[in-house]
Amino acid sequence: MDLDLKGRIEQFTLTEIFQLIAAAGKSGTLGIESDDAIVMIYFRDGKIIYGYGPRQTFHLGQLLRDRGVLSEEQLEEAVRVQANSESSKRLGEIMVGRNLISRIDLETVVREQIEELLFTLMAWQSGSFKFYENQFPTEEEITVQISVENVILEGLRRIDEENMVNDTFPDLKDVFALLTSASTAPREISLEGPEWNVMSLVDGHRSIDEACKVSPYGRRETLKGLAKLKLAGLIAKTEPKRSADSDELEGMIGRLAGMFEEYLSAKPKSRLEPGTITRTYVEQSD
What we know:
By secondary structure, the chain is an alpha+beta fold. It is 48% helix and 14% strand. The protein contains twelve helices and seven strands. A hairpin with a 2-residue loop joins strand 3 (37-44) and strand 4 (47-52).
């Protein structure tokens, strides 16, 4: 078992760790521990496929019941069968096997269960993490595919947005650009309409402050949208790009500086040679 990543959440936030695993297309298990709580998140090719936390609030049966997919009596039946069974079948498999729910219903709720666990994790401020290469859940688990970027975006919509903005952009003069993934796998990113529009303001030229000034959504909403994009790994700080106009202007300034320097060096000589354009200009200026 090769340990690839380990550290403290105080040094690297979980969103940064998720981004790193996703960008590298890693497969394996991320173990996260805080106080006496332990959570395991499983990845395949950079995507989250399963998650488990012994103390997670949202249990499978509860989610199925709350969605109206399963009645209280059916849930009690499945729990009773699981308790009396000598096999190690998960509750979801028992429900599908007894035709209490469909496979699609099960996968949908498993996805919700994992996402709720991930949203809870994003609020953790302390703890430790370890990543184990090519360690996967057992075949009994129902696995799905969840985009890391989408999880981070939705999770960030739920946390204290003002603190998030201040921590993310300590200097509003910084310039950001769109970040391309190093992974060859396609990225499934789900943004809301305003978030797409805010992302279009990031062009490698504008500072965060300048983007807020031209945004149609107002300063506060634009800052929140940009912070979410940054924390989701979709934009990154960069050196300001030089536009063609600025390059041309700088060239003109350079040429003018050269002409002025040439003029200064030629000025004494021009006074000894009447009739030159330079002398005529100087006399008129005097």
